[in-house]
Amino acid sequence: MLDINTIEKLDRIATPFYFYDMDLFYKTVDHVAELAAKHDIKVHYAVKANVERRLLEYISGKGFGADCVSGNEVLHAHSCGFPAEKIVYAGVGKSDKEIYEAMKLGIEAFNCESLQEIFVINEMAHVHGLKANVSVRINPDIDAHTHKYVTTGLYENKFGISNHEFDKLIEIIHKSEHINFIGLHFHIGSQITRVNEVFSLECLRVNEIVKYFESRGLRIDNINLGGGLGVDYDDPDGNAIADFETWFNAISDNIVRREDQAVHVEPGRSLVAQCASLISRVLFVKSGETKNFLIMDAGMNDLIRPALYGAYHKIENLSAAQRSFFPTFQAYDIVGPVCESSDVWGAGRLLPLSVRGDIMAIRSAGAYGQVMASRYNMKNLAPAVFSDTLDDAPQVVNYFE
Ligand code: LLP
Q: pLDDT band at residue 1, thresholds of 50, 70 and 90?
């Protein structure tokens, strides 16, 4: 929970904005670095979760690599200190320009998602006299037991190459002279909370697939298991750091690896989700026919997860916490200003009596928040404000003065 002093400072900043708790961020990354070293697991941060330069520079400084899904992410990660040889690039639809730029940079691996992509990369490398590092994304047909929009490892999903194409794939790799085949890539989904069960199963399936490829003459130097570790959206303070221990233990206990085989993971959400809140102000309190509405100045344009996935984010009234230790509670539908009925932060949420001007924290907003924001309704993009530079943020203007 935030201290009174910080809340007072937040109250003076123009809303909405993303507030980053840098202590928690550093603690999370340091914890993962320590565990990864212990388990000899290489970490590539999934840049798509959050692209703030300050965060990326710290993560790259810890020696992590970057997992990217677009040409711009590759270039951005590189400019934030990730060396090319630690950048991997996945995605089912890479354009020729994106492939060319990443190839010129000499990235660690293209995680190829179709036979045609391997063919195109091989051809381009040939034309430019280059050799491209290629890893192949496999669809292992594993149910990650998560939201259907973020499940990626089932045969019905568009990602990766499935087993009916394995033999053809192996033949193509053998024939492609301008690629350097380095290994296999997997990623079965996001916000996985049945951590031990799902990731153990993933490892067992991966062992079989690695064995199959190696038995057909392809050496697998890198086994990339993807990301997906879930975070606790219900209790962001109780579980501020995701359960990396269980994840890494599941991998160490189940993956079969040679000494010279590297194991990679690609966490995105779990590194950054809990370190930011979207801070928003109550614009109006409105009594509907049957409900009370709190109308906020942040909307689905700032953080689309509730509108898109029906995702739950904990919401706290920071101003009310300052007003009284024993407030009266009331049920509110907390909504944004956007002209869409799905622009709802939470329905029937019990909160202390709230008034115009109160500031609210929409918690666990550090992952897939700012990066998925849009300027729908011509709203401005909510900026990032960091806990250690709070005084530099743009201050509230009082138009009644
Ligand atoms: N690796 C690959 C190839 C990925 O596609 C993803 C995420 C990750 C790693 C990182 O997964 P994470 O550790 O963050 O679960 N917008 C959605 C999440 C989409 C995830 C897409 N892929 C959300 O807000 O829940």
A: confident
Ligand 1 center from residue 306 Cα (angstroms): 16
For residue 2, pLDDT beyond 90: no
Percent of the chain at pLDDT exceeding 90: 90
Q: Which of 42, 47, 48, 148 should be mutated for ligand 1, with most atoms under 8 A from CB? A: 48
Q: Is the pLDDT of residue 28 over 80?
A: yes
Q: Give pLDDT, residue 141.
A: 82
Asked whether the whole model's pTM tops 0.90, one would answer: yes
How far is Cα 173 from Cα 289, in angstroms, rounded to an integer?
65
Contact between residue 231 and residue 269 where contact means Cβ atoms under 8 Å apart: yes
* Mutational test site, ligand 1, from 68, 148, 223, 269, max ligand atoms within 8 Å of CB: 269
Sign of CA dihedral 336, 341, 345, 350: positive
What tokens does 100 get?
A: 């060319």
Domains and CATH numbers, the chain: 4-16+274-392 (2.40.37.10), 22-267 (3.20.20.10)
Instruction: Please answer whether residues 363 and 311 qualify as being in contact, where contact means their C-beta atoms are separated by less than 8 angstroms.
Output: no
Count Cα neighbours of 279 within 13 Å in the Cβ-side half-sphere: 30
Contacting residues for 103 by C-beta, under 8 A, at least 6 apart? 110, 121, 124, 125, 128, 130, 132
> Which residue(s) pair with 329 in the sheet?
352
Residues sharing a CB contact under 8 Å with residue 61, sequence separation 6 or more, in sequence order: 81
